[in-house]
Amino acid sequence: MAVDFYPCEIEYWSGRYGSIVGGKASFHIRYCDGELWLVVDWDTDECTAQCLAEDSLGVRDLIKAVLDGKEFLGGRGGGSFIINEYGQVIVPSSSVNGERVIVGEIDGRVLFDNPLEDKDDIDISDFSGLECGDLWNLPYAGASYNLSKKSEIYYYKSHEEGGESEFPPVQDNELITNLRNVRRSGAVRFIVNPYGIVLTKRPPEGTWMPDEKWESVFVGHINFEQWFEKEEV
User: Fold this and answer.
1) Tens digit of pLDDT for each residue in 60-103?
2) Sign of the dihedral through C-alpha 54, 56, 62, 64
3) Is 46 helix (H, G, I), strand (E, B) or coil?
4) Which residue in 61, 56, 218 sits closest to 140, CA to CA?
């Protein structure tokens, strides 16, 4: 199923926005060969590869909406943004002032070219054959959430007065168990990609490495009946 994009009236977004600092798990609009493309970065052992989305009407509409969102917020050109687990496309201000807008939603799969091998396209919706704890050998992109030291799933929402933790209506015990199978203790940051796939990072076994060198791991898939509700403007 090819991706469709459904633009909405651009409006300020005050809901959840789980972006990791530095755009480490974001999508991007960048210039490539003189044109603006939808891009996701893919960290491998050898390099950080830049994966370009396959051209389609839906992708072009998404690119235009992100650019319009950046301009609405006073910027120009491309930049980072997120697509959350509900397919909502949320665009932050390029001036990093905390403002962000929603510009629409995707429906379907965005496929990316594989710049490292001349083989199948990259499909970040595909987790067939994977079990909890298996390496995730695809781009790591999605909205960020947290598991507390007490093993509670939450989202930390920052605001002018500081911030507060938001919890889903039900704690998903199966997801929590999976997260603890990968990371036995302590607080855990994990992401949920646009297709509900849960991923996290862990240090390679038997090796000390800084956080940015940790390996990406498949955890599972969210149960939407036990997850945060979809937010609207």
Assistant:
1) 999 999 999 999 999 988 999 999 999 999 999 988 788 999 99
2) positive
3) coil
4) 218
The residues pairing with 143 across neighbouring beta strands, listed in sequence order, are 192
- Residue-range domain boundaries for the chain: 4-115, 143-226
Name the residue among 219, 189, 216, 186 with its Cα closest to residue 204.
216
Tokens of 118: 């001349």
pTM beyond 0.90: the answer is yes
**Torsion angles phi and psi, residue 12, rounded to 5:** -65, 140
Dist. CA 123–CA 109, nearest whole Å: 7
Residue (of 163, 222, 167) closest to 197 by Cα position: 222
The DSSP element (H or E) to which 58 belongs, if any, is: helix 57-72
Q: DSSP assignment, residue 212?
A: G
In this structure, what token pair is assigned to residue 224? 């939407």
CB 104 within 8 A of CB 65: yes
